[in-house]
Please model this.
Amino acid sequence: MDKKEQSKKEQSKKGKPNLMFEKKFAFDIWDQATIKKAFDFCEEYKGFLDAAKTERKAVVFAEAAAKKAGFLSIETIGESEKRGFNKPVYSINRGKAIVLARPGSKKISEGMRIALAHIDSPRLDLKIIPLFESEHIAFLKTHYYGGIKKYQWTALPLAMYGTIVKQDGLKIEISIGDKPQDPVFMITDLLPHLSKAQLERKMEEAVPGETLNVVVAGMGTRKKDDKNPVKKNLLALLNKEYGVTEEDFVSADLELVPQGFSRDLGFDRSMIAAYGQDDRVCAYGTLSALFESKSEYPLVVALLDKEEIGSEGVTGATSSFMADFISELIYLENGSHNENYLRDALTLSKAISADVTVAFDPDYTDVFDSGNTARIGAGVVIEKHCGHHGKYDTSEATAEYMAFIRKFLNQNKVNWQTGGMGKIDAGGGGTIAMFLAHYNVDVVDMGPALFSMHAPFEIASKADIYSAYLAYKAFFEAK
Model:
């Protein structure tokens, strides 16, 4: 019997097929027990968002969760212990990316289940020499990171996070703005009474990048002959509090993010409003699924940096970090770093690029293809390809791989839908899928849909957050 006849026979056993493919809103079909599980899961997810507002903080959270789950740092495994890949392990790259792996009953040479998410989000970074004084006010110059609408970041309370590294190697952690007693920082905006010329500009030009200067101090040294008295007073304060000088800004990763924590949205609390859900919602979902899945395949989860600016750099998806980590797993398994083993293992693997997509917004219908855009609340979204215009800068999953994805989602009754990044000529977006595809790995994008993506606060449905977690778990456990 050929596959076509076999398919017909299996279909006849199931009864009359549903000829129409329709989106199903999860809260409309879930029972109360499942809804409670989704809400409980999202409470823990909000805790992650609040603790992990930068990529460094996300790595700290992931490492602590991994250790609690019994994972070991791969760097701590000595030569005498290398007798097979039989323990869950992880590795951290420069404090800004982490890869974790769990062994299965199958060998790595038989293929892995890999999920990649990114833990960087659009924000404001400080320039190398950021501090200046003007009109008796001290400011910090910023350089925006990733795709933002600059006007959304003015008149917004900001918190500062990051690391200052002294030239002797001492690291000073900065976290200011989110504790109730902390000060916050802000970028000024022009009052409406004097904004006629500003309001006549294109939105992209209304707030030039060089005016995203953050107010940080307004008290001087009280010495009449001091030039830049506010800047000097602030530097003295920073030196007393943190032991830093102005030159120490040269070796610092300091980020400004929206102040405040994740909150339930709506009278029914069915959604979450928070900073950085792109893509930490997928990072948390894949991490949770890794800890809780029972898979016969070895599992790998990579939480990576730099996706918002093209994935370049030592902590992004184009780095060899993840491939090197898998090579170490192969060495644990068979005592060899043979490149052919890595190539063959990756070719037999299957992967998910766990990333968010856009939700159809009824206030902006002109940029969406309504039949090919995800709906918020209708489950996890599969995107066959991302990219822009003529499918540039993308990875496209094959029909065979899409069939595999559909099968395990349907078998596990996961609420899912398809989606895309708007009309063909309206724009588009990229993910890290194409970088894994370079290794000849089947990969597809999968994650929740968001309102207000890349805004200081993004909106996600609890139904989609939980559906994404269930989808990642089903992927890890798929045969």
